[in-house]
Amino acid sequence: xxxxxxxxxxxxxxxxxxxxxxxxxxxxxxxxxxxxxxxxxxxxxxxxxxxxxxxxxxxxxxxxxxxxxxxxxxxxxxxxxxxxxxxxxxxxxxxxxxxxxxxxxxxxxxxxxxxxxxxxxxxxxxxxxxxxxxxxxxxxxxxxxxxxxxxxxxxxxxxxxxxxxxxxxxxxxxxxxxxxxxxxxxxxxxxxxxxxxxxxxxxxxxxxxxxxxxxxxxxxxxxxxxxxxxxxxxxxxxxxxxxxxxxxxxxxxxxxxxxxxxxxxxxxxxxxxxxxxxxxxxxxxxxxxxxxxxxxxxxxxxxxxxxxxxxxxxxxxxxxxxxxxxxxxxxxxxxxxxxxxxxxxxxxxxxxxxxxxxxxxxxxxxxxxxxxxxxxxxxxxxxxxxxxxxxxxxxxxxxxxxxxxxxxxxxxxxxxxxxxxxxxxxxxxxxxxxxxxxxxxxxxxxxxxxxxxxxxxxxxxxxxxxxxxxxxxxxxxxxxxxxxxxxxxxxxxxxxxxxxxxxxxxxxxxxxxxxxxxxxxxxxxxxxxxxxxxxxxxxxxxxxxxxxxxxxxxxxxxxxxxxxxxxxxxxxxxxxxxxxxxxxxxxxxxxxxxxxxxxxxxxxxxxxxxxxxxxxxxxxxxxxxxxxxxxxxxxxxxxxxxxxxxxxxxxxxxxxxxxxxxxxxxxxxxxxxxxxxxxxxxxxxxxxxxxxxxxxxxxxxxxxxxxxxxxxxxxxxxxxxxxxxxxxxxxxxxxxxxxxxxxxxxxxxxxxxxxxxxxxxxxxxxxxxxxxxxxxxxxxxxxxxxxxxxxxxxxx
Length: 796
Description:
This protein has helices at residues 61-75, 112-119, 123-147, 204-207, 211-216, 221-236, 257-263, 274-280, 287-296, 303-319, 322-338, 346-354, 359-365, 367-373, 379-387, 389-392, 398-409, 418-431, 437-451, 457-470, 476-490, 497-509, 516-529, 536-561, 565-569, 618-624, 628-634, 688-698, 713-728; strands at 5-6, 21-26, 35-41, 47-55, 84-93, 98-106, 109-111, 150-151, 160-163, 168-170, 177-178. With 796 residues, it is α+β, with helices and mostly antiparallel strands. The strands form three sheets. It has a six-stranded mixed beta sheet, with helices on one face. A hairpin with a 5-residue loop joins strand 3 (35-41) and strand 4. Helix 3 runs antiparallel to helix 6 (221-236), helix 9 (287-296) runs parallel beside helix 11 and helix 11 (322-338) packs parallel to helix 14 (367-373). The longest helix is centred in the C-terminal third of the chain and has 26 residues, at 536-561. The protein is elongated, with a radius of gyration of 46 Å.
C-alpha cells in the first residue's frame, strides 16, 4: 500500500500545507484528467509547474494511473522528457467525504497548444519551429521505444509541453508500460491503462485490443501512430476528433508527407521508426534546426568550424523567428561564452541578439555573462568586449563597474599590444563616469599618466582627449592637480602635432575649471607659443584658444574695474560654444604611422628629448621623464617680476602628474622654469670655462722666431701645442671626470696655466721610440716649424 501524506489545503492560491510550492493560476488545458497550474517555490520563488489530479476513492482507476505516471516520470530522464522535481499525495478528510489529490511538480512549462497561440508564427518560420519541436519529440519517443523498450501509448498534442526556452518536452506517462513482445506466455493487456487513451488516437490493433498483434509488432508501432496524430494536429490547427480525419493531408507539408503516411501505415510492422523519421526527412533540414543542433554539440566542433559559424550567426539570427532566437539561441550562446566553448566572434552575435531585448531582460540575460567574460584571459575576447562596450556599458551599475569590471579592464593599460592599450583607453569614456573618486584618483589617473608618454603617438593623443572628456567627473582638487599639468606640460609639448592640437582643444573644453591666475600665468603662455607651430591645424586651434582665454581675462579686467570685488575674485569662466561637447578620438594607433614632418620635435632653444613613436627602452624613457611637472609648477623665472596672485599649488597628489617619476622627457640640466625649451627670453651667458675657450679661438696664432736659440724647452713645447689644437680638436680626449685627479703629463711638457685648451688637450704620445734630435748631424741650420703634433728634443 502507498503511504498517504495527510494534509489540508490551505486557502486558494496559497498551495498545500505539505507542498513546498505555491500554486498559482491554472492553464486552460491539460492532458487527461490532470489540471496544470503555474507555481513558485516557497524557498527562492523560482517558477515551476504543478500538475494535480483528484479522486474520492483510493482505488479509483485515474488515481492508480496517475501513480504510475508519477513513478515513470521520476525514473525516466531524458533532455526531451519533462523534468521531475517533486510529488506528493494528500488526503483531505471532511465531514462527509474523503478527497485524495496527487501533485507533481516539474520544471516550468506551458501546454503546446497555448504556446503556439502565444507565438503566432506563420509561413516558413512556423514550419521551422515545428520541425525543431517534432525533432525533439521524435528523439524522446525513440529513446522510450528503442532504448528503454517502453511504450508511451498516447503521443498527441496534449501530451507535449513547452519550456521557457521553447523546447518541446514529452509528458503524460500515465499509460506508459514495458513492451513485452518477447514474453510468449503473456496473454493479458500489455497497456494496463489503455482505456485512458481516446479512441481517435488508437491505431487499429489497439482499438480492437488485439494484444497478440500488438506484441508481434515492433515496439515503436503504437507511438509512431501517435506521432502521426501529433503532426496532423499541429498543421491542421485542430484537435483530432476521429481517426478518419488523418486521411486529410492538405495541411501537411509536401516534404513531410511521405513520412507522415508511413507513420500512419495500417500495417504495424511497416510503420516508420521514430529514429528514422529524423534521418530520412528533408523537412528537418532547415536553418533553425541546423543552428540549434550546432550549438548543442559545440564542444565537438573544431576552432575553424566555430569561427565560421559565429561569424555567420549575426546575419543568420535575423532570418530566424525572433522569439526562438531570444529564448533558445541566446541562452545557448551565453552559456557557451561563459564556459569557454565559444569563440570571440560569438560576442558580436550575443550583443546583437541582446539588442532585441528590453532593458530589464538585457540586464538579466546578457549582462551577467558579459561581466564574467571580463575575467577571461583570452585576448580576442577582451578586444571584442572593448570594441562593443558602447552597446552595453550604460547598462552596468556603478557598483558592478567599480568592483567587477574595472579591475579586469585596467590590465589592458599595461598590455604589450598597442591596439589593446588603445581600446582600453577608449573604453574609459563609458566606464569612467561610473567609477568612484577613489578608483579614479588612486588607479585610473596613474594609468593615464603613463599613457601620456606612450610610445604610440595616437595613444598619447587619445589620452589627452579622454582627460578632457572625463574632466567633469573629477573632483575639484583632482582637476587642479591634473588638468593643467597634463595639457600644458605634456600635451602641448608633444612631438606629434595631433597631440598638441588635442591639448589645445582639451584646454578650451575644460576652461571653466581654471581660475584667472592659472589662465594668465600658465595656460596663455603655453598656448601662445603654438601660434607659430609648424602644423597649420595646431596654429588655427591655438589662435582660437588664445582668443577664448583672452576673452576670459578681459572679463576679469572689466569686473575688476567696475569694483565688483566678489565677481573679480571668482570670475565665471565658461567654455566657448561647441567646446563643451565630447572631443573626438584620434585615428587608430595601429594604422597611424605618421609623417616624418609631423613627428619632428618642436623647434626650441634648449632641446627636449623627442617623444617619438618608435620603441625605446624603459630606462631611457623614465630617465628623461623626471622632474618636469615639479619644475614647471614651482618655477618663478618668467613671472617673478609680475605682481600676480599666489602661484598655483604644487601638485603633491599620487595621481601621476604630481610625481617626479611621471614628468616630461626633458634634459636633467635644463632650467627649472620649463619654458626655455620653447622660446628663451634672453641670450644665455656662457660659463667661465667656455668664455676662456671662445677667447682662445679668437686670439691669433703667433709665429715662432727662425733662430736656433729659440728652441727652448718651454717655447718649443708651446708653439706646436697651439698649432695642434685645430688639428686634434675633433678627436681630443675627454675632460677628466674628477677634478682631484691630475693629468698624467711629464714635468718637462707641463702646460701653461693661461692656456684655455689645457683641459681638453691631447695627451702626450705613449710610444717608446727614440726621439728625434735637432739637426741630426746636418749642420746648425735651424729647423722650420712643422704643422701637427711634434716630438721635441728634451736633452739636458
